[in-house]
Amino acid sequence: MSLSSDSSTPAAWRRAAGVAAVGGAVGIAGLLLFGPSAMEVPGTAHPVQQPLSHVLGHNLAMPGAAEVRFGVPPERAASDQTIDEQADDAVAEEVTTQAAPPPPPPPPPPPPQAAPAPEAPAQAAQRPGTIRLPQGGTADLVRREVGPDRVLPVPDGIDQATWWGTGLGAESGAAVFAGHVNWQGRRGPFAELWDARIGREVSVMDQNGRAWRFAVSEVHTVHKDDLPARAAALFGQDGPHRIVLVTCGGRWEGGALGYEDNRIVVATPIS
C-alpha cells in the first residue's frame, strides 16, 4: 500500500521505523520459539539417538509443515480448531461409538478328504525268510530299522538275523543282514563269517520260497571305532546291488561294549 500524505514528515518516518522494528523482533522471536532447532518434533528421533529409519529400514516422512504445531501447548492447540473441525470430530466420535453390525457367520468347512496312503517301500513288500551261509548254517530273518542313535538292532535269538536296507533283486543298494557270533554260550550261524572265503556261495530265501544266490566278493575285519567312516561305502543304498553280512568278533571288551571288531562279508548276485 502507499503512505499517507504526511509520510514525508519526520514523525511519519519514526512511526514506520517503529513498526518495522517491532515486526523484526516478532520474526526473530518466532524463529526462536517455532524453529526446528528449538523444539523436538514429535515422531522424529532425538538428536542423540539412532534414527528409527535406520532400525526399520524405511525412510519415515514427517507430516506436512502446516499440520505440525511447534511449541504450542496441547490445550492451546485444541482451542485453535475451527468450528468445522470440531463438528467433524464430533461426527467422527459419534460414528465410531455406534455398535458395528455383527459379521456374517463363516461358511461351513469343506468335507474332509482322506489323505492318500503312503506308498510302501519296495523292500517292505518282500517278506523276510531265511539266509543260508557258506558252511550250511541258517538263520531266520527279522525286519528291523535303524534307530535314532543310528544303531541297527540285532535279535536276541541266536538263530535269527536282522534284515535292513534294500530288497532282494533290487537294481542297486545294499541288503544288510546282521547276526550274533554267539549268544549265551552257544555259537551262532553268523560265526561262519570268520571263515568266509571269496567265491563261496550265500543264498537268501524269501517267505514265498524264492531263492536268491550270491557269491562272496569282499571280506573285511573292521574295528568298531573305524566302522562309521566306512558305513556309507559298505551299507549305502546306492551303487551295485549286493548283500552285506555282519557279525562281531575279535577281543572281548566286556559289558555293553562287546567285541572290538566287526566281520563284514559282501556278496554280489550270481547271474
Structure report:
The structure is a single chain. This protein is an alpha+beta fold. It has 2 domains: 84 residues, no CATH class; 145 residues, Beta Barrel (Sortase, Chain: A), CATH 2.40.260. The chain is 22% helix and 25% strand. It is built from 5 helices and 10 strands. The strands form 2 sheets. It has an 8-stranded mixed beta barrel. The longest helix has 25 residues. It is elongated and about 85 Å long. It starts with 9 loop residues before the first helix and ends with a strand. The relative contact order is 0.09. The N terminus is likely disordered.
* Percentage of residues in DSSP E strands: 15-25%
Number of β-strand runs:
10
- Largest β-sheet summary: 8 strands, mixed, barrel
Look up the CATH topology of the largest domain.
Sortase, Chain: A
N-to-C terminal Cα separation, in Å?
117 Å
Please list the strands of the largest sheet in the order they lie side by side: 1-2-3-4-9-10-8-7
Which descriptor suits the 3D outline?
A: elongated
CATH top level of the largest domain?
Mainly Beta
Kindly report the name of the CATH homologous superfamily of the largest domain: Sortase
> What string, H for helix and E for strand, traces the elements in order?
HHHHEEEEEEEEHEE
Tally of individual helices: 5
Number of domains: 2
Can you tell me the residue ranges where pLDDT is under 50 for at least 5 consecutive residues? 1-88, 90-97, 112-124
Gross CATH architecture of the largest domain: Beta Barrel
Biased composition (Acidic residues): 82-92
Protein name: Sortase family protein
Region (Disordered): 77-139
GO molecular function: hydrolase activity
